[in-house]
Amino acid sequence: MKKILLSLVVCFSTLSHANGAYALYDYDQHEYQVSFNAHEVRPIASITKLFTAITILRSGVDLTEKVRVKGRSAGRFPNGTMVSRHNLMRAMMISSDNRAAETLANTYPGGFDKFIRDANEYIKGRGLMRTSIEEPTGLSKNNVSTAIELISFIGAVKDNEALRSYADEKTADILIPKGKKQVHIKLHNTNPSIFKFDNILLSKTGYTDPAGRCVVMLVEKDRKYYGIVVLGQKNVQERSELANVLITKPSLPTKSVVHEADLIVFEWAM
Questions:
Q1: Spatial contact of 125 and 20, defined as CB atoms under 8 Å apart
Q2: Domains of the chain (ranges plus CATH)?
Q3: Which of 56, 60, 114, 177 is the most buried (most CB within 10 A)?
Q4: CA 265 → CA 168, 226, 257, 259, distances in Å?
Q5: Closest to 102 in 3D by CA, of 132, 131, 138
C-alpha cells in the first residue's frame, strides 16, 4: 500500500508541473485515468501523420507500388526517386519524414485535394468535430485537435494491424536505387519511450513551434489497452518524462478520474 501511495505522489508531482495538455484513457473501462486541458484545441504537428496513414490505408491503394517522390519539405528520399508506398509509410511513421507524407498525399488516387477531403471526411465521420487537417505532414499550425479527440481516434484505430505495424517500428534500413547503385536509408524512431518500454503498440511524435513537443501512444498494461496523449510540452525531455509517467502510472480505482488542475487526492482503502 505504501508503495502504491508513493507511486501516486511521484506521479502527481510530475504531472502537476507539466504544461500543455495530456490524457491517459483506459479503453477497457471506458474512463479517463488522468486528464488536463483535454478539451483545449491545439496544433498537433506530426501527429497529423497518423491521419495521413489511416487515410492511405483506407483508400485501398497498392502499398507495394512504387511512386515518384515529390515534395517541398525535407525528407530522406530525393525528389524524383521511385519508392514504394510501403517504404514511404515506414519513413513517415518511424522517422516522421515530411517529404514521404507529402508524396503519399500527392500520389493519392484523385490527387492531393482528394486526399485532404477524404482525410477530413473520415475525421468528421468519427465525430471528431474539433479536429481538422489542411496538409499531410503537420507543419501547418492549422492541423489541430484536442487530447480527448485524439484519444477517441486512437481508440478507433487501435485494432488496425496494418497501422500498428508501421507505428511501432523502432528502426528500419531501406534500400533505394541511385543510378547503378543502391543507397541505404536508415530510419530511427523519434519517440525515445519506444526504446525504453516494450508495451507500446502504436506511437507518433510531433513538433513545431506552435504545437510544442507532442506524442500519442497506444500501450498495453495488464492485458488492457490505454491511450496516452501529451501535447504542448517545451522540449523532448519534458515530453518524455510526462509520457513515461503516464505509461507506468498505477491504475486508479474504477470510475475515478484525476483532473490535474485540481489535483484530487485519493485515499486508498486498506
A1: no
A2: 2-259 (3.40.710.10)
A3: 56
A4: 35, 22, 11, 10
A5: 138
Report the candidate in 220, 216, 250, 227 with the shortest Cα–Cα distance to residue 31. 227
List of long-range contacts for 240-245, beta carbons under 8 Å, 24+ apart: 240/192, 240/193, 241/14, 242/14, 242/15, 242/18, 242/22, 243/193, 243/215, 243/217, 244/193, 244/196, 244/197, 245/10, 245/11, 245/14, 245/15
- Give the pLDDT of the chain (270 residues) as one tens digit per residue: 444 334 444 444 456 556 899 999 999 999 999 999 999 999 999 999 999 999 999 999 999 999 999 999 999 999 999 999 999 999 999 999 999 999 999 999 999 999 999 999 999 999 999 999 999 999 999 999 999 999 999 999 999 999 999 999 999 999 888 777 888 899 999 999 999 999 999 999 999 999 999 999 999 998 999 999 999 999 999 999 999 999 998 876 655 454 544 333 222 222
Strands 181-188 and 171-178: antiparallel
Tell me if residue 42 falls in helix, strand or coil: strand
Dihedrals φ, ψ of 259, to 5°? -95, 110
Q: What is the pTM of this model?
A: 0.88
Give 172's contacts (C-beta < 8 A, 6+ positions apart): 90, 91, 94, 186, 187
DSSP one-letter string for 187-252: EE-S-THHHH-S-EEEEEEEEETTTEEEEEEEEEETTEEEEEEEEEESSHHHHHHHHHHHHHPPPP
Contact (Cβ atoms closer than 8 angstroms) between residue 193 and residue 247: yes
d(CA 202, CA 215) in angstroms, rounded, equals 11
